[in-house]
Write a structure and sequence with these properties.
Blueprint (H helix, E strand, L loop, with lengths): L1 H13 L1 H21 L14 H12 L9 E7 L9 H14 L5 E4 L14 E8 L8 H15 L4 E6 L11 H17 L2 H29 L3 H31 L4 H28 L7 H32 L26 H11 L1 H16 L7 E2 L11 H13 L7 E6 L6 H13 L4 E4 L3 E2 L5 E8 L6 H21 L2 E5 L1 H35 L3 H26 L4 H4 L7 E2 L2 H29 L4 H28 L7 H33 L8 H6 L8 H7 L11
Parallel strand pairs: 5-11
Antiparallel strand pairs: 1-3, 1-4, 2-3, 6-9, 6-10, 7-9, 8-9
Helix pairs in contact: 1-2, 1-9, 1-10, 2-7, 2-10, 4-5, 6-7, 6-20, 7-8, 7-10, 8-9, 8-10, 8-20, 9-10, 9-16, 9-19, 11-20, 11-21, 12-17, 12-21, 14-15, 16-17, 16-19, 17-19, 17-21, 19-20, 19-21, 20-21
Length: about 725
């Protein structure tokens, strides 16, 4: 591995014009493809194997032409104080609005509140439901404008009018905070390298990699049914790892220059050593992201694969374009220990006292047990809120109060009860029943007898008369545990109805779908952990040639991810620091957050593990004692790992400014997870454990040592090929 990457690094350095041309051509090709590709619609959200999805598919078969997957909008009217919606003037305004809404070419139908009995008991609130032929993301701007114009016209009469539903669904934006994250990364790189040129290389290559990845996703979005969140995730992770991978290679290049090597040789050795760590770190991230496919939720699978592709591009760019750009930079990238013109004159610094990484590692090695206990107790305390984790999927109730969707949600809750925003659709499949009408009636009667049921509408059969839908309005809000119990209660009652009438009873609707998603994700978490952690564990055994080091890496990851989940619960569910984070509405944590965080954080955690511990392993196999190897690893790697962690945190934190609650939560969760993992687990717990274990940390059974392939992450093959360790070429600086 090291020898191959060494040759690749030298080749890229020499053939820098060709390498740069290839990557620029790929970026141009991806950009042209993205610009010419058809606009992507909203990614279809299907959950194979769940009852809610089976019911949805059955509706499409038995009720053709009803646009079951079409967008809906609820136009909610509230009368001025002292008036009612049944007053002649207000009634005329509503009916004019209904007529105006019905004229749209994409409109399937509009319900009249007075015919549909969609007026609250106190007469102050009413709503009209608009159904469209296409989904919210596919809806024409003209149709959305017509919807908003109709509402505005109704407001001129004095009514309060708000619009809920997914018809006004918009592409999420991340805001200026994303740019701030990149700016913070630039500042950290300048401080780390002391040179604008050296600092600019990781930023440039990361942006090129993300540009290629996101452009490719945009170009394929329509064909592969990729949602907008897919490209946002790819950008988030691609930027973070792209900067980090380039940072490690540039840092190793400067270290090789400081040891007196010629620039081309230094580039080859940097790619051969640090590049090996980049390859395996990238592999762990790819394994974690691709492993999301075991959950069998298509949207999550696509997000994981797309982000994994962007990570793979980041690895390839770091291995080839970074040495090519180093060739262009020439003497403007200084050896380590030399300052550039930005932070001082270009003169070799005199030996000074050990750097901060060395001093910290020496302290940990002297007091490993105290540092270990403090780190574990601290992360354990941060993880305590995770015990109160409640899962759900965001709806209009989680929108900011400044949006019309949220105001419509609140008006409907006020007028019709909290459960009105999460109706349950019960589908009765009586095709195998001798008396379908009796099956429909029995189903309705059974549901009426359940707790927390406010309204049960009469069964609405299809033309064939063998299938009917029944709408159930719960008494509790959609995300409550009471509503979840009601869904399970209806499904349990369906077993008795099946025995009596041979009719199948299925529960669907957005609320039921959210409940099924949460349960599916919970069921998949353990198999996913076993698969991803197991594969990465085997990979790390090959990298470190040790049993205990990969085991320690996995256990440390579990600590950091639990602490990060605890922080997410504290902010997004309990409301701690919610104003600072821009969280206007607290509630259940997004149901896919735990499994998603496990996947991404595991991959990122292994990045730091590989980068930091490979330096320790390198020192150990070259003859240093275990404790001294820990200090050596920190002397060479702590500054760079710290910079990489700060950069990654800044990039992720930049997405906290997103208008999309899911992206905001992911950005915060990943940023805090990187903080816990890099600064507490990898910088404190890892050296403490290695100091306590001593030589046992690097123990590997002989039979396993013989069976494992030698990937040579430490670059021993390069040392052997060059002969005497001290026989180095003098750098021409």
């Amino acid at each position: 591995m090291a020898t191959f990457l060494y040759k690749l690094g030298r080749l890229s350095f020499r053939r820098r014009h060709l390498v740069a041309l290839i990557w620029v051509a790929l970026l141009t090709l991806a950009g042209v493809g993205a610009a010419s590709a058809p606009a992507a619609g909203n990614s279809s959200f299907s959950i194979p194997g769940t009852e809610a999805q089976k019911a949805f598919d059955l509706l499409e078969q038995r009720f053709p032409g009803t646009s079951a997957d079409g967008a809906t909008a609820r136009v909610v009217f509230k009368a001025p104080s002292g008036e009612k919606m049944t007053d002649p003037g207000n009634k005329a305004t509503v009916q004019d609005t209904v007529k105006e809404l019905s004229d749209g070419s994409e409109v399937v139908g509009v319900t009249d509140p007075y015919r549909a009995k969609a007026v609250s008991k106190d007469g102050t609130i009413a709503y009209a439901q608009v159904t469209y032929k296409v989904s919210g993301m596919e809806l024409d701007d003209a149709a959305k404008d017509a919807l908003e114009d109709s509402a505005q016209d109704a407001r001129t009469s004095g009514l309060t009018v708000e619009i809920g539903g997914d018809a006004l669904q918009a592409v999420p934006h991340t805001g200026s905070s994303e740019v701030i994250g990149i700016a913070v990364a630039a500042v950290v790189l300048v401080i780390t390298f002391g040179s604008l040129v050296a600092a600019g290389l990781p930023l440039l290559t990361a942006l090129i990699g993300v540009g290629i990845g996101v452009s490719a996703i945009t170009g394929l979005a329509s064909a592969l049914d990729l949602g907008t969140t897919t490209s946002t995730l790819a950008m988030m992770i691609g930027l973070a790892v792209g900067i980090d991978y380039a940072l490690f290679i540039v840092s190793r290049y400067r270290a090789e220059l400081a040891e007196g090597r010629e620039r081309e040789e230094a580039a080859g050795r940097a790619v051969g050593t640090a590049g090996s760590a980049v390859v395996f770190a990238g592999l762990t991230v790819v394994i974690a992201l691709v492993g999301l496919s075991v959950v069998n939720i298509p949207m999550l699978t696509k997000m994981g694969i797309a982000a994994a592709g962007t990570v793979a591009i980041a690895v390839l760019i770091a291995l080839t374009m970074i040495p090519a750009l180093l060739g262009y930079a020439g003497r403007r990238v200084k050896p380590m220990g030399e300052k550039g013109k930005l932070l001082g004159r270009a003169s070799r610094q005199k030996p000074q006292r050990p750097n901060l990484g060395t001093r910290w590692a020496s302290f940990v090695v002297r007091r490993p047990l105290a540092v270990l206990l403090l780190g574990v107790i601290g992360l354990g305390a941060a993880a305590v809120p995770a015990a109160s984790l409640e899962l759900g999927l965001p709806d209009d109730g989680s929108q900011p109060t400044s949006t019309t969707q949220r105001r419509a949600y609140d008006l409907l809750s006020e007028g019709f009860g909290p459960g009105f925003n999460g109706p349950l659709m019960v589908v009765v499949d009586a095709k195998g029943s001798d008396d379908p009408k009796a099956a429909f009636a029995e189903t309705g009667d059974e549901i009426k007898g359940l707790k927390d049921v406010v309204t049960v509408t009469p069964a609405q059969p299809n033309k064939a008369g063998d299938t009917a839908t029944i709408t159930v309005i719960p008494g509790s809000k959609p995300s409550s545990a009471t509503t979840e119990n009601l869904v399970h209660g209806i499904r349990d009652a369906g077993a008795g109805i099946k025995a009596d009438t041979d009719a199948n009873v299925l529960v669907t609707g957005s609320t039921a779908m959210n409940i099924d998603v949460s349960e599916k994700l919970n069921d998949a978490l353990v198999p996913y952990l076993v698969l991803v952690v197991g594969l990465a564990f085997l990979l790390l055994i090959v990298v470190f040639r040790s049993i205990l080091v990969p085991l320690k890496a996995a256990l440390g990851f579990l600590l950091s991810v639990m602490a990060a989940l605890g922080a997410v619960v504290a902010v997004f569910q309990w409301g701690w620091l919610s104003e600072l984070m821009g969280v206007e509405q607290t509630g259940p944590v997004m149901s896919m957050m735990p499994i998603f965080m496990v996947g991404v954080v595991f991959g990122l955690a292994m990045d730091y593990e590989v980068f930091l511990v490979t330096r320790m392993r390198e020192a150990y196999v070259h003859g240093e004692k275990p404790a001294q190897a820990v200090v050596t690893g920190f002397r060479h790697g702590a500054r760079v790992v710290t910079a990489a962690a700060v950069i990654m945190m800044a990039v992720f934190a930049g997405f906290i400014g997103s208008s999309e609650s899911m992206v905001k939560m992911i950005g915060f969760g990943l940023a805090i997870a990187v903080f816990f993992d890099a600064f507490i687990v990898r910088m404190a717990i890892v050296p403490a454990v290695l100091a306590l274990l001593g030589r046992k940390a690097w123990w590997l059974p002989r039979w396993l040592d013989r069976a494992l392939p030698n990937v040579d992450v430490e670059g021993e093959g390069l040392r052997a090929a060059s002969g005497d360790d001290g026989d180095r070429e003098l750098a021409r600086v």
